[in-house]
Structure formats: structure tokens, C-alpha cells
Design goal:
The structure holds 2 protein chains of 2 kinds.
Chain A: H1 2-38, E1 45-46, E2 50-60, E3 63-70
Antiparallel strand pairs in A: 1-2, 2-3
Chain B: H1 2-17, E1 33-35, E2 38-40, E3 50-56, E4 59-64, E5 70-76, E6 82-88, E7 101-106, E8 109-114, E9 119-126, E10 131-139, E11 151-152, E12 157-160, E13 168-171, E14 177-181, H2 195-201, E15 204-209, E16 214-219, E17 224-229, E18 234-239, E19 246-250, E20 253-257, E21 262-267, E22 272-276, H3 281-289, E23 298-304, E24 310-320, E25 323-326, E26 331-335, E27 343-347
Parallel strand pairs in B: 1-24
Antiparallel strand pairs in B: 2-27, 3-4, 4-5, 5-6, 7-8, 8-9, 9-10, 11-12, 12-13, 13-14, 15-16, 16-17, 17-18, 19-20, 21-22, 22-23, 23-24, 25-26, 26-27
The chains are: A alpha+beta, B mainly beta.
């Protein structure tokens, strides 16, 4: 019985740690994917640091845009 | 052995808990009622990106953020018949490089802000002649660097700080700053990032009511409402469930992360009306990758009292950007970017 309890506790620990690292990795992958695909998007304007994309209401270098990305060039 | 198991359990519990965001929250209302609006056409006038609207007596003015020709269009109200367009887009001295905000006080006092030129202009609308005349231009001091919002009072302009060294400033009517007030109520680890980037991330929309002295600021990113009573110098800051603006930095620039927050704020005699979006930048980015369009505008109307308590919450049937509220007639006029009929009228 004691062995079963220990086994269950160990599984819970492993699951929670795995979940943490899985979601963190997923977040990084999404960000990385987004950044990589930015090159494929037609950007409106960029400077040394940022790129402004689309038509929206975010202020970006004097433009009003949909998204702002770091400049990877 | 058992001791180690408990230690492992405790540590893993801490790791799992550290993943959830920690924010102060305002009390939310469980009931959010749906509001259905009446769409209004502005034909034959085409408004590409109706971002702001204001109504005064029998005239309405709409600001087009991405105009083809003129940033502003005046209409009769409530018939919405065109009177005249003004604020021509262009690089000539009398033209505008951008339109960021306007304030409609009376027919001879429509104040417009051009952040790219750093100019505030006053215009007069003459409905019988169907014309609009430029009355004066005020150049804002270079030390302000960039002003994205304003409110003109009888004694000064109230403008949010762009450099991060204060929250907002009082600027004399000649464009010279006279007083810096407050600081960015940042509570997170962003405290150590450079101040201009912090201020960009905390870019806020503002409104002021001179009758009660309430100056409200809502963040474009995150979910923060700040209330300053300029008559009593009282100040509240409230963090919604989405917390303060999330961002990363690149040089002196802020790269938005987290969510798109508030889109507009209106301070009336009794309440603070706000439009909230809440879309995450992850979703916007994901949709961009898929070549899909993300909805511009917010569907949430949050109404706060002057103590920052959320007193009413409504879900709108259209995503809207700018609002004007008439409490006497229980009417809210809103702009909608996503519709061919850019004006929506709500009974609130």
C-alpha cells in the first residue's frame, strides 16, 4: 500500500514538472515561430530595433499599426 | 525516503504555482448583459478607420486614423449628413502628418492633436456654410518629445508623459510644460527597463471632466485604470484581471506582449466609461501567420465609478474603438472599424 502511495506521489510530481516545462517550451516555440514567420510578412516600416506591421492603432515610429516586432535583421 | 518524497512534492507544487500570473484585481461583476446597437451609415462619406467620435448638440465629428484625404469629418447629428471634412493629410505646412486625438468643446473649438508634427490645432465648424476653418496652431515643446493624447482645460493641456519620468504633465496653452505629475504605477520586474520604453508600453488613452476634476487614464496594453481627482489630488490605480502592460524591449522601444487592453475612455458627470478589447498578441500573431485578420476593436464596455469600482459590464454586439456618451439621453455613440457602417448607436 505504501509503495502505491509513493508511486502516485511521484507520478503527480513528474506530471506537474513536465507540464511546467511543456507549457514553457510551447510558449517559446510559438514566439520563435512568430518571429521566424515575420520575415515572410510584408512589413510596413522598420528601423534598427523594431518593425511595424499592418494597419491598426498601435503607435509605432509615427505609424498606426497592428503589430510591433523586434527587428531581426 | 518519505521525507524526500514530501520535499519533492512541495518543490513541484511551488513550480506549478509559479506559472500563474499574480495581479491585483478589481472586483468583477458576474453578470454582463448584451447590448445591441443600431448601425448608422455615413454614406456617401467613406471612413477608412473610424477611431474616435464626439457629438456636441447638432454636430458630430469622426476621426479617421488611416484616412485617404482628411483625418476629420463633421456631420449633422442625429441625421449624420456630411457637413465638411478637415485636417487634410499631407506634408504641406497647413496639412497634418497624423491625427491622434481630438476634443470637441464647441463649434468654434475643435482641438486636434498631430503627434508627428507635435501640434495642437483649433478649428471652427460653420454648418450653414458647410465649411471648417483653422483658427490657431500651437506647437508643443520639443522636451515633450512625442505627445499621443491630450485634454485641453481652461488653464492648460493635460498630456501623458512620453519619456517615463512622470505619468502626465500640465502644459501651458503656448505648448510649454509647466508641471510634471505622478509616476508610472509599474509594479513588476519592468521597473529596471529604460524609462521611454516603459512609457511606450504604458501608453494610455485619457479623458478629463472639468466639472468634477476626474482625469482617467486607461492603458492600451494590459488592464490598468488610473483615476486622478485633480481637484482633491486624490489618486487611485486599479489593475484588472489582465494586470499591467506586458512587453519586452529592443533599444528604446517597447515590443508589446500580453494583451491589447483598453481602446477608449470617457469621463462623464457620474461614471468612467471604457472600451476593453483583451485579445492576446499571441493570438494576433498566430492569425497573422495564417494570413487571417484579427478583429480591431473591443466588445466589452466597463463602467466604473470614481472610486474605481466596476459598477456595470456589458458585451457589445460589435467591436468598437471610440465612444462618446450622453448620460442624459442614455446614449452611447461608438465607432466600428469592422463594418461598412462605421457608427453604432447604443442605448445604455
Amino acid at each position: 500500500m505504501k509503495k502505491v502511495v509513493k508511486f502516485v506521489i511521484a507520478v503527480i510530481c513528474l506530471a506537474s514538472i513536465s507540464f511546467y516545462f511543456y507549457t514553457d517550451a510551447k510558449k517559446s516555440t510559438v514566439n520563435q515561430l512568430a518571429l521566424e514567420n515575420i520575415n515572410a510578412l510584408a512589413e510596413t516600416e522598420w528601423n534598427n530595433h523594431i518593425r511595424c506591421y499592418g494597419v491598426g492603432n498601435l503607435d509605432c515610429n509615427g505609424l498606426k499599426v497592428d503589430m510591433i516586432f523586434p527587428n531581426l535583421r | 525516503m518519505q521525507r524526500y518524497v514530501y520535499i519533492l512534492l512541495f518543490v513541484s507544487g511551488l513550480i506549478a504555482c509559479s506559472h500563474s500570473p499574480q495581479t491585483q484585481q478589481h472586483a468583477t461583476i458576474s453578470k454582463a448583459n448584451m447590448l445591441h446597437g443600431e448601425s448608422i451609415s455615413t454614406e456617401p462619406v467613406f471612413i477608412r478607420y473610424p477611431f474616435r467620435v464626439a457629438v456636441k448638440d447638432s454636430v458630430a465629428v469622426v476621426m479617421d486614423l488611416h484616412c485617404d484625404s482628411c483625418y476629420f469629418q463633421a456631420f449633422t447629428y442625429p441625421a449624420w449628413k456630411p457637413i465638411a471634412a478637415f485636417g487634410k493629410h499631407g506634408e504641406a505646412p497647413d496639412e497634418m502628418l497624423s491625427a491622434d486625438k481630438f476634443q470637441f468643446d464647441s463649434l468654434d473649438s475643435i482641438w486636434t492633436l498631430d503627434a508627428n508634427r507635435m501640434e495642437i490645432r483649433r478649428w471652427a465648424i460653420i454648418p450653414p456654410k458647410k465649411s471648417v476653418v483653422l483658427k490657431e496652431t500651437i506647437t508643443l515643446d520639443k522636451n515633450l518629445v512625442r505627445t499621443l493624447d491630450f485634454y485641453r482645460t481652461d488653464s492648460c493641456f493635460l498630456v501623458p508623459g512620453y519619456m517615463g519620468d512622470c505619468r502626465f504633465l500640465k502644459v501651458a496653452h503656448n505648448g510649454i510644460p509647466i508641471k510634471s505629475i505622478g509616476k508610472i504605477p509599474c509594479t513588476s520586474t519592468h521597473k529596471n527597463v529604460n524609462q521611454p520604453a516603459l512609457a511606450q508600453a504604458w501608453r494610455s488613452f485619457t479623458d478629463y471632466n472639468p466639472r468634477n476634476g476626474i482625469y482617467a487614464m486607461v492603458t492600451q496594453l494590459g488592464e490598468v485604470l488610473e483615476i486622478y481627482n485633480l481637484k482633491t489630488n486624490f489618486h487611485f490605480t486599479f489593475f484588472g484581471p489582465n494586470g499591467e502592460p506586458q512587453f519586452s524591449t529592443s533599444g528604446n522601444h517597447a515590443i508589446p506582449d500580453g494583451i491589447m487592453g483598453f481602446l477608449d475612455v470617457k469621463v462623464t458627470e457620474h461614471y468612467i466609461y471604457t472600451i476593453f478589447q483583451g485579445t492576446s498578441f499571441k493570438d494576433i500573431g498566430r492569425r497573422l501567420q495564417q494570413g487571417k485578420h484579427s478583429e480591431d476593436g473591443g466588445r466589452n464596455l466597463y463602467i466604473f465609478n470614481f472610486n474605481g469600482k466596476l459598477v456595470r459590464q456589458c458585451v457589445l454586439d460589435h467591436p468598437v474603438c471610440g465612444i462618446d456618451v450622453d448620460e442624459k439621453t442614455h446614449t452611447m455613440i461608438a465607432t466600428c472599424v469592422e463594418s461598412n457602417q462605421p457608427i453604432i448607436k447604443y442605448k445604455i
